[in-house]
Each structure stands twice: as C-alpha cells, then as structure tokens.
Amino acid sequence: MRYATVLLLGALLASALLCDAQKKNKTKSKGKLKSTVAPSTLESATVELQRAERCTAAKCKLPDCRCSDATLPRPKFKGKEHEIPQALISSLALQFVTITFDDAVNAVNYAQYDLLFEGLTNPDGCPATGTFFLSHEYTDYVRVNALYNAGHEIALHSVTHGDGTDYWREATVATIEREFGAQLQILETYAKVDPQHVRGMRLPFLQIAGNNTFAAAKNLGLGYDSSWPTQQFKQPPMWPYTLDYLSVQDCQIGPCPDAALPGVWVSPMVTWTDTEGYSCSMIDACAYPPEDEVNALFDWMLENFNRHYQSNRAPFGMYLHAAWFSRGRNNFAAFKKFLHHLATYPDVYMTGISRMLEYVRKPVLGQPFKSCEARPKTQCQAVHCNVEKTVTGETRYMSVCDRCPAVYPWLGNPLGQAL
C-alpha cells in the first residue's frame, strides 16, 4: 500500500512540475586564456588562466592529479599483478557505483529515496549512499536535512535552475558563483548542512560554460564537477580525473574547458546505451528504454553495469531525476531490484561521488575505507512557511529547519531577509 501510494503521488507531482517547467522554459591562442567575470564584481572583468598542456604520468601523480586518459588494469591482467603498480591492483576487485538524483527534494521523492536505500549496505557493512544535486525552488529543506543526517551526499545544482541552456552556456564565473554560492548558503541556513561537507556541483541541463564552470567551482572551494557526459569513452569507460592538464574527453555539450585548473576533479558522466544503441547521459534521457516490465528494465540496467564491471571497473554512474519513477509502471520496482542485486556483490560499493573520489585519489588493497563515514547529527526543528517570492510576487510554501525566512530566498537575498 505504501509503495502504491508513493507511485500515485509521484505521478501527480511530476505532472504538476512538468506544467510549471513548460511555462518557464519557452524556450585558441597560445599562452593565456580569458575567463569572463561580470563587470559589476570588484574583480577585473577577465581572469587570466593558463592554457592546459598535454598530461603525462610523469608530471601528474595521485593523490592530487590524474590524467584524463589514465586507465586502470582490466580483469584480464589477473595473474600478472607483479607487472602492475601496487596501488592499482585493487581495481581488479572493486567496483564503485554512484547513484545521483538532480533537482528538488520533496515529500514524494523523499519517500521514494527512503524506500530505495532502506536496508542497503556495502560489503564493508557501511550503508549504501547516494548524491543529491539540489536546486532550490520547491525543495523541502527538512527532508534535505534528513537525507544529510542519513549519510547521503548533498551537492549543488543552482538556485534558479536557469531559463534554458543559453543561460548556462553563456554564464560568467560570477554568475555561476552567485547561483551555486547562494544555494550553499541556503543549505547551511535552512537544512543545517555543513558547507565543508558540500564538495560537488552539477550544471542544470548538463550545460557547462567552458573554463568558467570549473573556475567557479574552484573559487567556491568545491572539489569536483559532474556535468560533463562522454560518449566516446564508455567502452572501456572513463575514470575521474583532474583538470591540471588538458582533458581528452569528448565535448558533447560545449563549450568545454581547455585551461589548467589544478586540483579540480571531473567525475565524467559515462553515458548509458538504450535498447537501440543510442547514448543517453541520464537514465531518464534514454530515447528507447526497454519495455515497461521489471525484468526487461533490470536486464537493461545490468547490461550497462557490466560494461564497467567486466572491463576496467571505472565508477558506474546511475544518473536520473526522480520523476522517471512515475513515467513507467515498473521503473521504481526495477530500480530497487537492481540496487538490491548490486548489494549481493562482494566487490561493489554504492557511495556518493565525493566518497568514491577519496578512493580514486588514494587507492588501497582490499577494503577501500578504514571505517564508515561519520553521520552528521544536526538538530532540525521543522517549520512550514508561507512567504512571498519577491521577484514574481508569487506565494511560495517551503519547509525549513528552525525558522522561516522573511521572504522566499533567491539570488541576491539567499537568506530571505526582509529588505
């Protein structure tokens, strides 16, 4: 009964949000490069970045640098461990799976997330976790706090979500900093999320702005971005890497970076393949999914997973929006079945992206982590607010921790203060 209720509510909410979204979205020189910054900032109008050079293993070494074309050995090298650097032998055994959800957290999809992760554990006995890339509008911050306290990774997806791809393609460093920096403030104030625990970001529509995106991430103190899909590097799949040197990743949704941005990690979105052989950057973006039947969907997920598990063990990403669960009668059941199937593997770990990157930076033999992640223990007194969104005059309802803002938080006023 609980499962059926969640699906019904999900269908109704997805329909309502879709209507709302449709209303809103009618729509190389050598040496130094320029990264655009809004002239209104106190900084100069441009920031000079060094053009990235080709990466070599001699120059780029873990834990803080990794070439984009670096690979780890495949299982076929078993028996030849003496020929492989010790730090990489573990790749013959471990497979990381990163489960990510984009956009707002609300009462309905929170119930779905709760059902999905309930009872899931990794081989080390630690709870399986996911990454939630949060946009601001319609988000229930009380439930964000619950996800955070449960050990899931909270990451950034902007305040406004933008008005189509052009907004993000042409975004300056300052625009991106404003969008994601404001969301960081909102999360700290209204969901009790420690900013030091927020390590990653994903651009809406997966539309990056070349160097500007990654320069902004670096300025905000973030560790990684996961907005960049790859079709070319999926067989074998691409591993995460840093932007200290020039990336070899194919530029599916440009512009893509060509500057040296030391220490900024890219968690590439290795595309899935649908039933007709077409690539899709997110599960819900596949044009030709399997028939709406649990076993057919499960087999399709397993086929995509095995492209990683049976080759170089690059992290396997399961990227989607929760609205996908309401698009098919059996999507949720198949997804849940697949996660529980993964939990039976002795060498598969379902973690947030930042946790996976800890391992990529410092790979070890055997068990990947010394202990389970410490869970936050924040106190959140739920309050429900009815406030004005001043830029439109609309009324917004929101649930937050402890106290209501005076007005709906937004760009320029992320704390929702009375002006």
Brief synopsis:
The chain has 419 residues and is an alpha/beta fold. It has two domains: 2-361, Alpha-Beta Barrel (TIM Barrel), CATH 3.20.20; 381-419, no CATH class. It is built from nine helices and 17 strands.
Structural class: alpha/beta
Total domain modules = 2
What is the CATH superfamily label of the largest domain? Glycoside hydrolase/deacetylase
Structure summary, number of beta strands: 17
**In CATH terms, what is the architecture of the largest domain?**
Alpha-Beta Barrel
What is the CATH class of the largest domain?
Alpha Beta
| Shape field | globular
Describe the sheet with the most strands.
5 strands, parallel
Overall mean pLDDT score?
Answer: 89
Q: Tally the helices.
A: 9
- The first-to-last residue Cα distance is 47 Å
Q: Name the helix and strand elements from N-terminus to C-terminus, one letter apiece.
A: HEEEHEHEHHEHEEEEEEEHEHEHEE
**Poorly predicted regions:** 3-30, 37-45, 73-77, 80-87
Strand content: 15-25%
Computed over alpha carbons, the radius of gyration is: 21 Å
Helix content: 25-40%
What is the name of the CATH topology of the largest domain?
TIM Barrel
GO molecular function: hydrolase activity, acting on carbon-nitrogen (but not peptide) bonds
Organism: Drosophila rubida
Domain NodB homology: 96-222
Keywords: Signal
